[in-house]
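I hope you will forgive my troubling you with a question about protein structure. The record follows directly beneath this note:
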Amino acid sequence: MITSGSWRTKSFKSYNFKALGVPPAAGHLHPLMKVRSEYRQIFLEMGFTEMPTNNFVESSFWNFDALFQPQQHPARDAHDTFFLKDPMYSHTFPMEYLQRVKRTHERGGYGSTGYQYSWKYEEAQKNLLRTHTTAVSARMLYQLGQQEEFTPVKWFSIDRVFRNETLDATHLAEFHQIEGVVADYNLTLGHLMGMLYEFFKKLGLT
């Protein structure tokens, strides 16, 4: 119409610059992120606080030793765990707590007889890609234990963990772990069952 000039004989309505156009195609949440968001919202509704889980690299001390997994456990083998070459070792630990963990591994305590072996500091120093977010919980519970006056807490985390798996259609070297921790006095198995029931009810599972 412009090249032929026929527009001169046509009637046009005024252009509405405020009219909404066709919505542009947009991205969507990945199915995994949708599930993660849903779970996170449920935890927040139940009064939990999210733990900081942004450190994928952990020391063997927090990943294994502080959780009282013996140093000769198969999970510490390179076939199951990704160990780092650089930096290979961690050097900063709460030494008083480390000595208590060492003593409990070797001789026990708190009603345990321990593992009855020689615990090695060099093994605890080894850096790795965390095999579970429980390493974060171990750090958080240690900090909670340093309080002069105990404060009850409800914590959760949802984040990536890494295992040296054989890759196939159903296995990757990383996956997500969901974790909740409640610390208070006079808790019972009934409290745990109630929380689990409430969590799954909010998911729509009865």
